[in-house]
Amino acid sequence: MVKQYSQLYLDIRRQLMEKEGEPLASQMARHLLCHFSGKNHDQFLRDRDQYAPEEVCSAVTGAVRRLLADEPLAYILGEWTFYGLNLYVDNYVLIPRDDTCALAELAVKRGRFLDKSPRILDLCTGSGCIGLAIADRIKDARVTLADISPEALAVAKKNVSRLKLGGRVSCLRVDALQPAPAYLGKFHMIVSNPPYITTEEMKTLDASVKDYEPHLALHGGDDGLVFYHAIVENFTSALRPGGLLAFEFGEGQGDNVCVILQTHGYTIVERVLDFGGTERAVLAQFGGQS
């Protein structure tokens, strides 16, 4: 049954308000309608009294059903915005979150002062969001996106192509839990948002995360610190003298992550908060001055 866009919007919002508050339900309803109709917000407002095609009504109805089953909006849309970039996502990668902008901003800010054409490795890259944000803002950076998951790398490659960054960004399959392959060479900076959810925390995740996002990218061992130990031990050798290592970490993990870094010869340069005021990322330097 076809409906006017305005009526379809009200119907979607009403259904979503069973689970979400009014502001979020309204925002999600607009997202869905704009996405499946191919209209931007202004066009949607202009055409609100027009009748939506049957295929749009059907697609939106299916999307609402998926949302009510806790599937994240990003996976339904197949895209998400991070640090000003519109990225392709699917359920083989974590949804880029605003929290991770703290790490991206930290890396971009320091990366601008590195040598000309700096080499930067984004380890456990997932969708490639951090490395691509760096490549977008630092125009001469040469960025390697690395992940153990072939499916995640396929997503990262789509985003490299989508953003037309293939000339400076490459994708490689690399296991962060194993010694850094010699063919990687040396980097001025390594950035990583590794899995850091503890075994106990995995049991209490929201259904939208636990049931849909990849556990491979979430679970960081019993204490959530397995990947920090491994990356520092295995990939310090892939840094140039004075090279930088930047990590995202979970709430309350900052001190432990810094101890791991300092124990392996790093100096803490900066610790930063995310938009919500939670400490979220650290930048450290190994050896001499960069």
Brief account:
This protein is an alpha/beta fold and 290 residues long. Helices cover 40% and strands 19% of the residues.
Question: What is the averaged pLDDT score?
Answer: 95
First and last CA, distance:
64 Å
Given as residue ranges, the uncertain stretches (5+ residues, pLDDT < 50) are none
The biggest beta sheet is recorded as: 7 strands, mixed
Shape: elongated
Q: Could you tell me the number of beta strands? A: 9
Work out the radius of gyration.
Answer: 21 Å
Task: Decide which structural class fits the backbone.
Answer: alpha/beta
How much of the sequence lies in strands comes to: 15-25%
Share in helix? 25-40%
Fold and architecture overview:
- By secondary structure, this protein is an alpha/beta fold.
- It has twelve helices and nine strands.
- Strands 5-4-3-6-7-9-8 form a seven-stranded mixed β-sheet, with helices on both faces.
- β8 (266-273) and β9 form a beta hairpin.
- α1 runs parallel beside α4 (54-68) and α2 packs antiparallel against α4 (54-68).
- The radius of gyration is 21 Å and the shape is elongated.
- The model has no long low-confidence stretch (mean pLDDT 95).
